[in-house]
């Protein structure tokens, strides 16, 4: 049967053959700069709101400091990285942290069921390092090209202006990689009690690089010394009845009374290769690295001890980007990381302005003052340092101006070889396995709340979405699927009888005998769409 929906196109009218995958060199990347379809899509998405953030609009922040232990586990940190912020002891690196919700607007309640942003700006002696993460250690998707679609599905309906459960589960039911994150978010872990008793994670996979130019894959984690505490839906509703900003109040008052929250900074480390022994790709942000095989190794501690003097000037104008790294910390080929690195800074230039890095909250500390040839632009106010030659705003120059820094003794070089094309990972069995393991790891009260939340949501969804979601959950864990089906009044046997999704889990893939809400579909892929690259 011919699909009657119109073909999805770019804004230039070009048919979109693959709306799930960045163009990359081989299945694992890296992504390439000529991803025009992605750049057009993400830069438009970055500009959908002004001046409020498109995501993470509701937030609060605090100042503090970070201290490195000088070790990663029991080994000297310099064995893994040359980043001085992680290797030098006795140094207090200033930090600013912004906590936030994701989907809701600036005045939405902090009891919302939603991932929490955990963004840390470390003003190191070598310049800023932004570690932009969430409270949960994974994410819904593993390819950045899907991010605008995901947020659109989770944001309010453009017609009803309400967050509709069917939109959320319609997207999730066609994106099995999201099942792991859904299992976390719909459990009590989706509503942290406050920001002080909440974990943080970089989520993306980065690399640590040492003086010898040797790299290791790394995941970053913040573990609260105050412990972790989450809320059930009933507890959150009780708080929301009288306070929509309880977490902001809790953090502010704790710091004011001297009860300063503290987190231990930990890393997981893995050799820099593909790890075929794992049933997931270590670069896949929808998966956790098992801690029994890749333990959390302490690296340092962070303390928040000062509230902002002005919320707008500091918290709201603070701007973070995943591309803001210091020497010794590098990018991996994580497709979410590579996409976010373009998107985050692009958003800040649009939302705050091209000179957002001149603002005190975003500028590096004096020891690492910026010296660039970037000039002018909206709201520029910084002038060249006294005594410099103001006539030379270019490089190289034999007269004056700035010069390149000395190269490290041994630079990190990554060999890249593969066919350029659009790829989805072939290691997908853990899409179900890790979600099932998470379900079984919860305590009884957490499972009860999870089942009640998903079951209640699915009651508000069309039958086609109900059946497919139960099919997914049953494949994660039979008890999981059975209990949700019972709660929502869904026929489990009909759900189990569904065929698997097509090999390529498109967001609007039609199921036999079902009718979907009208929408666009991807264009058929050309028979051959690869070129070679070395």
Automatic annotation (TrEMBL):
One of its GO terms (molecular function) is heme binding. CDD domains: catalase_clade_1 (cd08154). PROSITE patterns: CATALASE_2 (PS00438), CATALASE_3 (PS51402). The keyword Oxidoreductase applies. Transmembrane segments: none annotated. Heme binds at residue 344. GO terms for biological process: hydrogen peroxide catabolic process; response to hydrogen peroxide. Residues 9-403 form the Catalase core domain. Its EC number is 1.11.1.6. Its cofactor is heme. Pfam families: Catalase, Catalase-rel. It is an enzyme of class 1 (oxidoreductase). It comes from the Bacteria. Keywords: Heme, Hydrogen peroxide, Iron, Metal-binding, Oxidoreductase, Peroxidase. GO terms for cellular component: cytoplasm. Residues 498-534 are annotated as: Disordered. The active site is at 56, 134. Belongs to the catalase family. Decomposes hydrogen peroxide into water and oxygen; serves to protect cells from the toxic effects of hydrogen peroxide. This is Catalase.
